[in-house]
Please model this.
Amino acid sequence: MKVLQSEAELREIIHRPQQSVWDKATDRIDAKARRFIELSPFFLLATSSDDGTCDVSPRGDPPGSVLVLDEHTLAFGDRKGNRRLDCLCNILERRHVGMLFVIPGITETLRINGQARILAAAPYMTQLAVRNVVPPIAVEVHVEELFVHCTRAFVRSALWKTSSWPGKERFRGPRHPEPRAGREGGKGGAG
Model:
């Protein structure tokens, strides 16, 4: 076994992609990306803290609940959830975020990397309302990189083929894993 330590070692095994793979990235929300965001009811939000602790949080609301404010900026409301605030506290420490937008049945995803900020009383808060509930805060993301990600993961996993789903009867694990000591109220454990 060899632990790889550098990109050069990694590139000996996995060669560089074609230039077109790099060229598809942009820093603008064009019409196609806007449509993808508007149709997506679900995205994953990735953040990290100053100490390197990473977090990925699923976010879901009806399609159209993420606002495209301009060609470089989008915003979404933060809904009442478990109140752990992992992603939000990470944004306060390190503003860089990653987002992966998903549309059910579509094998492409939209990836966005950018800088986020958390806002209270933003002028567009009422536009972020879902079922007449205005969120208490909004997260605004300035897009630095945006591209459509290839379909291979969804195709290989057969994620959208209901016949491949395991079904609830096959998943009989505990609702929550065993808690780890030292986690209450802050960083330092599972989460």
